[in-house]
Amino acid sequence: MERTHVYSSDLKSVGYAEAYQILEIEFRNDRIYQYQNVPRDVFGQLLAAESKGKFFHYLIKDNYPYVRIS
């Protein structure tokens, strides 16, 4: 999945697979997670958030199932 670099102290890059509703996040520690069943508008809100790390921690982290892929 292609990811876009983001300016954040926690996140390094983010990508989204609309057909599968998968949000992929690469963290600054180089770990990559895929969050499942994430609506496209949540991805858009993440990209637009002033603090992407806070948005992630409050609205994504404990609200969607995930798998660590690296």
Can you offer a commentary on this structure?
The chain is built from two helices and five strands. By secondary structure, it is an alpha+beta fold. The model has no long low-confidence stretch (mean pLDDT 97). Strand 2 (11-17) and strand 3 (22-27) form a beta hairpin. The relative contact order is 0.24.
Give a short synopsis of this structure.
The chain is α+β, with helices and mostly antiparallel strands.
Task: Please give a handful of descriptors for the protein shown.
about 70 residues; alpha+beta; 5-stranded antiparallel beta sheet; 2 helices; 5 strands; globular
- Largest sheet report: 5 strands, antiparallel
Strand arrangement in the largest pleated sheet: 1-2-3-4-5
Low-confidence stretches: none
Number of helical elements: 2
- Broad shape: globular
| Structural class by SSE content | alpha+beta
Assign a percent range to the helix content: 10-25%
Work out the number of β strands: 5
Q: Output mean pLDDT.
A: 97
- State the distance separating the first and last CA atoms: 13 Å
Beta-strand share of residues: 25-35%
